[in-house]
Design a protein that fits this description.
heterodimer; A: 271 residues; alpha/beta; 7-stranded parallel sheet; two-stranded antiparallel ribbon; 8 helices; elongated; B: 257 residues; disordered C terminus
Amino acid sequence: MRVGLVLDQLSGNGDGGWAGWAAIAAEADSAGLDAVAVRAGPRQSALMLAAALAGITEDMRVVAEVTVSDHPVHLAERIAVADQALRGRLIVALDCAGNPGRTSEAIEVLRLALASRPFRHQGTHWRIPAGLPANNGHLGARRVRVTPAPVQLEVPIWVCGRQSRPVATALGIPWLAGPLERHDPGDAPAGRLCPVSRTMPPDRRAIIAALQAEAARELVDFALLAPPEGTSWRPGSARQLATTVRASLQLPELPDGIAEFWAGTVPGLTR
Amino acid sequence: MLLLPQHDIDETSLEVATLLSAFGDRLDLGVALGYRDEEFDVVGVPRPRRGRLMDSGLDRLLADHGARWPVPPPVWVGGVAEAAVRRAGARGLSLLLPNSMRPEQIVSRRGFLHDAARSGGQPPGRVGMLVDTWITAADDTAARHAALERVVRHHREYTAAWFTLEGQSGFERPELMDKQSDRTRSAAVIGPADHVLERLRQLRTLGVDAFVLNVRTDFPDGAHRRVMRELAESVLPALRADADAAVSAGATAGGPS
């Protein structure tokens, strides 16, 4: 199983807030966690912050939560730029709140636009190109292409949030189950990813047991962990999770005595 | 920099707010109109409305300052046409001129900017300019000529390919492209470091107080790195010293002149 952190919202102004926030992501990367997830918010563009993490992380994936707020071709451009900055480490988690038909159509446009070949689209919500006479569109280009293309041949697009489960099923794409949601066997045909986001309970052994139970039923293979309710990730949190939770979920069982060894050697860790 | 009339203002405002909260006062925001029919048509925006969309987009973005942005970033408006320059001036915004301006054009645009600012009751913004720049060794006229023609060729290809000139492709109007190449050639600042410094100082006397140096990266063998280092070591310190001297002279006189 792959394990990542859900980052807190970036707060504060100027370099101070950024430095502390980015340090958590950098620690997750150097500790060997598989991903961080950047949530969308009323004051933050997750894609922009995901791209900004490119300079301070090297290996892990960055999951950016996006909404279809403006034209899907512009959303595709921002995704392509963030994936370029991250050299192919971007995962998009599209929040499906709103009109499900519009969301599905936006995903169709994103897939076309991120494929780096010319396309056209005639849908209910968008007609691309629009073909407006004012733009000589009735004479000019019949197809369009988004450049630069993403680094990845196919940028992973997951769906999350309200009404996301039927969209995932209909389009055959991964469903990111929320903290109170679980995959059913029917959600996960062979080969399709089963990502989940979970809130850490105060005792980490509880999350390990819960995820092991889901993993035993092959209902999770990528877990994104948010800090316990009312708390934030602190310096050292990522390293503790990488040592304990990630290892516990990747081995069938832990060697005898290793938990005690960690408690004595990992800074800030108790048994 | 973004082509504001093509974009959703709420999304742009969110991105600005994100950059401000992460990086504070390191952000300068640049906006321009855009000029390709095809780009407007992709997102269903009628190109003839671009001026009005720029007006309403800027007004909404600036009105958002108080609500969402901790400190408003400097805003640079790209453009040459009188209407575009006055649009920036009336709002107290700064102007970013392109790379092929003649001296008298720079002076007139600065005049439009200041005049519109006065009419709008705003302190005038700054005048910035894109400058094609390259540094060659002293007395190497062959290298200077080669660098200049490389820059001219680049702009000729770009302009001919992407601008419609009187309804035709630029490649079909070589006489118009020749004029553009002449303007590029005389505006480019290419030569030994002392020549580059002197030319930038001349632009300053015309009222340009910010330079965006366009240093080409497609020269071979690390030449780009060499030029950037020479700019940093030989040109920029002298320009900054001029600016500091001007500021202290202005302070002595009781305000900027």
